[in-house]
Structures are given as C-alpha cells and as structure tokens.
Write a structure and sequence with these properties.
Layout (H helix, E strand, L loop, with lengths): L2 H12 L11 H15 L13 H11 L6 H18 L6 H5 L1
Helix pairs in contact: 1-4, 2-3, 2-4
Protein name: ACB domain-containing protein
Pfam families: ACBP
Organism: Coniophora puteana (strain RWD-64-598)
C-alpha cells in the first residue's frame, strides 16, 4: 500500500460533505479513526479518557482495539474500508478506481 494512496483516501474521508451522497455511520467513523491513528501514530500511547468523555472514550477504545496492528496493515485496512463504503453506496466517484 503506497503512502500516496493512503493519503488520497484520508483526504477523501476527511472532506466528505455533510448531507452528501456518502454518509458514514458512527461505527464507520470510528473504524476510519482507529485505522488512521494506528497508521499514523502506531499503538495507542495515551491514557483512556475519563468516564464523562464519551466521544473520547469511544475513540480511544476503537484505537486500542487495533493495538499491535502494523502501520502498513492499518493503511491497507483504511483504504479497503473506504472502497467498501463507496461500493456499498454505488459510488461512481473516480477515486474508487484509483484506490483499487
């Protein structure tokens, strides 16, 4: 998996318009988040957020769930997840062909 392909996928996900044809569920957002963090930082390296930080805990737990995954594998999974989401939505966006 090339770094350029991964970065292209990251840019696409981060710039998805609200209300656009491709909408991500909360679970999908967390999946992208955990693979992004694992690919760019590596294993989780912070303390788990406090009990009232629900979003922070969900993100931390998601990232922790991929502990031990190589950064290369995390990049691959991120791109594969985007391909899956685009295919599910019958996207005709040219990025789909670029990522395959």
């Amino acid at each position: 998996m090339s770094e350029a392909k991964f970065q292209k996928a990251v840019d696409y996900v981060q710039n998805l318009p609200k209300g656009g044809p491709t909408q991500l569920s909360t679970d999908e957002q967390l999946e992208f988040y955990k693979y992004y963090k694992q690919a760019t930082v590596g294993d989780v390296n912070t303390a788990r957020p406090g009990m009232l930080d629900f979003t922070g805990k969900a993100k931390w737990d998601a990232w922790e769930s991929v502990k031990g995954t190589s950064q290369e594998e995390a990049r691959e999974k991120y791109v594969k997840k985007l391909i899956e989401v685009l295919e599910r939505n019958n996207s005709t966006d040219p990025i789909l062909a670029e990522l395959k």
